[in-house]
């Protein structure tokens, strides 16, 4: 296999990590592991949140491979599988010829939970979050209902490929409005915490932590900053949704 | 130290980590480790704070401890990031982040004393978001560095 083909295969696996919620550090490690399996070195990848450029040398001439990252979602099963695959390739336990079928297998992995489990998890997470400052059954009930309704709509919009920003705003307004109605009915007095709990299932914790992991690695400073800016943008949308619901309903 | 309050908070943090793990589509076999990491992280942070350690340093130490807990309970070559991320989220600054943004929106419409108070609250919330997130990332980085050392030297197998 030529250097260019090896780099293409390595990028295929590394991009699974980037597209499914893994950090850039992890994606770069996967890229390096696969190339190690091909016994190729002197290949450098320049990562951005929207694209990756691999610089190598083929037949004595410098060559560049550019690949867009595409939409970034969350399916850490795929990211974990890609990482495990790269470790096995680096150790020589997987034939490099089988990489294409392995990539197809990982890309076809469905999320391990059904829609209803995800809705239940959102409600449960919101309810637990609402109890962190202290026991408040009213806040628990409000957050449970608000997050469940919001997540139900979010999964519907996700299936219709609605972009992240409008989807987050619509679901944030719905969840926060449900919470605001409950607060207006006097079910709880912990207004700010209950409102935040109602939208906690959309909090971009993963991009924020990945951003800091990238930032601290010192090799992916710009991608880290991009991720953090992206997370702040989602937080801003959610805060606007909360403010809107508070103003209109309460 | 109010041990009941610390344990209650830690159990809630563990359950929160479980929920987050499911929302992040973690494989079912990693949900129990996520609970233990969330519990261990929150418990160690609260214990260090009660001993008078700075909250940010406590968070960083707690993040490192949760990596070691994950390392102890998941006997795989690489600790799955989903377990670390889910376990670290209850240590996070989500509430502070929301407060910072809401304060930012409030500041633009206030005057006089109320403006001063809101501006101070905004700076405090923004500072908390930055330091807590940085502390988590630093702690995870230290924990992973320890993991690499332990696994490379084979120390773990000898313990």
What brief labels describe this structure?
A: 250 residues, three-stranded antiparallel sheet, 10 helices, 3 strands, B: 159 residues, mainly alpha, 81% helix, elongated, disordered C terminus
Please tell me about this protein's structure:
The complex is a heterodimer of chains A (250) and B (159). In chain A, α1 runs antiparallel to α3, α1 packs parallel to α4 and α2 packs parallel to α3. The mean pLDDT of chain A is 89. Chain A folds into two domains: 105 residues; 135 residues, no CATH class. Chain A is elongated and about 75 Å long. Chain A has ten helices and three strands, in the order ααβββαααααααα. Chain A has a three-stranded antiparallel beta sheet with strand order 1-2-3, covered by helices on one side. Chain B starts with a helix and ends with a helix. The C terminus of chain B is likely disordered. Chain B is built from seven helices and no strands. At the A-B interface, α3, α5, α8, α9 and α10 of A face α1, α4, α5 and α6 of B.
Instruction: Write the H/E string of chain A, N to C.
Output: HHEEEHHHHHHHH
Biggest β-sheet description of chain A = 3 strands, antiparallel
Largest interface: A-B, 50 and 38 residues
Specify the helix fraction band of chain B. Answer: over 70%
Quick take:
The complex is a heterodimer of chains A (250) and B (159). With 250 residues, chain A is mainly alpha-helical. Chain A has 10 helices and 3 strands, in the order H-H-E-E-E-H-H-H-H-H-H-H-H.
